[in-house]
């Protein structure tokens, strides 16, 4: 028969001091329930397997790091990629490739030759391009692009274009050739010192004066000629003018009459001019 001996000194335990409580255990239970749900979801993911990764690894040769990217340049690239990542945050919702897809891809991938791969110089060039792309994508992010709804509405209104009898590339080439010639001609014309309105007004004024002077000269010549070639008395003179050729616009004939416009003709003088429009002869009839 066993004999149990109790401690002679009583043990004192204060309730609630440093011990787990029912409330804290409920909180832990809630967290464990969430973790259980998350791990259950992870268990259903079709992750890449060691076999697939080993097959890919067998196709990748050792990488020569001589002259390759440096940590500093990678930091610069990481900074740019971080910005790009912020701009492309919508990609987080993409349905990424699964083990099945990777396995199919693995079957199509040949061994990778790393000879003459990325260098520090090429990374500098890529960094410059990424900087430009980053600026461009930031600007593009602010563009109010047409939506599919708008394009669909427009598409419904656009009919098929009939190209029958329309401009062809050959005819456009011909037109371009002619336009090039016209452009060269107009460029040459642009350099010409054309007459201005002010200069033309000045010429008009001078010509008016010359016309008045020559009119007086013609009148004086006619009077003098009449005095020597038409001695008979007359009281009317009918004049005609040269319409074309030498002396255009000058007096061509002078018909002297007695008794007014309807009177009898006393004499007729015919005036001739040379190539410089100067009076060359006077013939009496």
Number of strands: 4
Counting helices, strands and paired strands, the structural category is alpha+beta
Order of strands, main sheet, comes to 1-2-3-4
Helical content stands at 40-55%
**How many separate helices?**
8
Q: Please state the average pLDDT score.
A: 82
Low-confidence stretches: none
Task: Write up what this structure looks like.
The protein has 285 residues and is of the alpha+beta class. Among the domains are: 28-141, no CATH class; 210-284, no CATH class. Helix content is 51%, strand content 11%. It has helices at 22-43, 50-59, 71-87, 99-108, 120-141, 148-157, 169-190, 197-229, and strands at residues 236-241, 251-258, 264-273, 279-284. Helix 3 (71-87) runs parallel beside helix 5. It is rod-shaped, with a radius of gyration of 55 Å.
């Amino acid at each position: 028969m066993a004999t149990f001996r109790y401690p002679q000194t009583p043990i004192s335990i204060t309730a609630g001091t440093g011990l787990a409580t029912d409330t804290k255990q409920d909180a832990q239970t809630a967290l464990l329930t969430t973790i259980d749900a998350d791990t259950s979801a992870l268990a259903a993911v079709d992750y890449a397997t060691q076999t697939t990764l080993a097959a890919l690894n067998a196709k990748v040769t050792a990488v020569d790091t001589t002259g390759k990217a440096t940590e500093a340049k990678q930091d610069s690239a990481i900074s740019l990629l971080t910005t790009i990542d912020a701009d492309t945050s919508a990609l987080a919702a993409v349905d990424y490739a699964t083990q099945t897809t990777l396995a199919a891809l693995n079957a199509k991938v040949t061994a990778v030759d790393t000879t003459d791969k990325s260098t520090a110089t090429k990374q500098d060039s890529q960094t410059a391009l990424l900087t430009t792309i980053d600026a461009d994508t930031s600007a593009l992010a602010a563009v109010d692009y047409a939506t599919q709804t708008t394009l669909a509405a427009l598409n419904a209104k656009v009919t098929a274009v009939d190209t029958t009898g329309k401009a062809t590339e050959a005819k456009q080439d011909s037109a371009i050739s002619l336009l090039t010639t016209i452009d060269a001609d107009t460029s040459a014309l642009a350099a010409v010192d054309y007459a201005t309105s002010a200069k033309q007004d000045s010429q008009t004024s001078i010509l008016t004066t010359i016309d008045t002077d020559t009119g007086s000269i013609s009148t004086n010549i006619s009077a003098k000629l009449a005095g020597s070639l038409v001695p008979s008395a007359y009281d009317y003179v009918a004049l005609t003018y040269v319409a074309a050729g030498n002396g255009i616009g000058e007096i061509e004939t002078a018909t002297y009459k007695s008794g007014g416009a309807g009177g009898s003709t006393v004499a007729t003088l015919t005036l001739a001019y040379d190539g410089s429009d100067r009076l060359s002869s006077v013939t009496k009839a």
